[in-house]
């Protein structure tokens, strides 16, 4: 099994997560580079496209795609990656460090709706999805507070407790044989 971690991150949390996964799997990793890194476009779900990756996607058995959710969207850089490389993706796992909690995943801006969209693009090639709600690094009293979790970022000093447990469970699922989605 030769996986690669492909990621996009604006403020660093998804890059942190991508590095953690690639480190654990000792695999390659590459950032998605939008043609125009314009956050305002991404918020409106407008897609400026992405530059070609340096790695050959067809050389990998499994893509682990990591990136944030903005305004309830499967954001343009991630969507462009799937569209551009669709024919070369054999299997994919989608991971997001996002704001939405597990409890609210199916609400308007929840990660559950984005997971459905990714699923509709890849069907059975999407093996697994995993959210890492960034609020898990906050004290419980602040986890539902949008102001607090919008300011939270993953780093070595806060990646412990509940979020580290979610990470260990996720890595365990990744290492088990995954049924086609
Ligand atoms: C303007 C804005 C909109 C956001 N919209 C959503 C959303 O709709 N759903 C969600 O789960 N998280 C949302 N988030 C939270 C981000 O997904 C979260 O902060 C993520 O960790 C950022 O990743 P990064 O540090 O890799 O850029 C939003 C954040 C910002 C700044």
Defining key terms:
single chain; 181 residues; alpha/beta; five-stranded parallel beta sheet; two-stranded antiparallel ribbon; 6 helices; 7 strands; 16% strand; globular; binds flavin mononucleotide
Describe what this molecule looks like in 3D.
This protein is α/β, with parallel strands linked by helices and 181 residues long. The protein has 6 helices and 7 strands. It has helices spanning 13-25, 39-43, 76-85, 111-122, 146-151, 162-175; strands spanning 3-7, 28-31, 62-66, 69-70, 73-74, 92-96, 126-131. The strands form 2 sheets. It has a 5-stranded parallel β-sheet with strand order 2-1-3-6-7, sandwiched between helices. It has a two-stranded antiparallel ribbon with strand order 4-5. Helix 1 links the parallel strand 1 and strand 2. It is globular. It binds flavin mononucleotide (FMN).
